[in-house]
């Protein structure tokens, strides 16, 4: 196995940071001058379309959502709201304890590292400035590709950009978006991060996997032990 492809939210990010999303959306609603509850509903119901790029950039998204909520923000107000929204998104993607160190360790052991994230515009627009970016060789974003997990094209794209076959890849995720099922179907080896130390956040996953991988770890650090015991990573 030469490559490892990670899910992003709840896998590389602090799972409990997801609990900050509602407050972050409220701050954006306030900046846009729209009702918080209407904004939350409009954002959550548009999620499947936003993550495949149908709403465009963060600026375009917020303008469209504000109009759906009955407000047409001017350019200045929209600019402020975009900045507030990006600040909120940054809090929700705080790295989990140990995650960056694990990525560094894997890189020094010559693994190629990829990412497949079902995400909206915020992560793509901010990616290059994050601590994750220099550690991930091939990030694949649903927003940019126009497909969401478990679409096999996302997995094929990640493997191709890493210069490996899907059969040479581990796929590591917390089991949202039926991602493990998708990984298995293309021939990757799925690993579930159980997030057992974060009770209550599992229910925040979208479209959770029904397939349970044979390989399970509670914390991202345990991945190093799992890879070491697999005896085929030469
Ligand atoms: Mg996840």
UniProtKB/TrEMBL annotation:
Keywords assigned: Hydrolase
Pfam families recorded: Hydrolase
Molecular function in Gene Ontology: hydrolase activity
Keyword Hydrolase: yes
InterPro entries assigned: HAD-like_sf, HAD-SF_hydro_IA, HAD_sf, S-2-haloacid_dehalogenase
UniProt keyword Hydrolase present: yes
Enzyme Commission code: 3.1.3.-
SUPFAM superfamilies associated with the record: HAD-like
Protein name, UniProt field: HAD family hydrolase
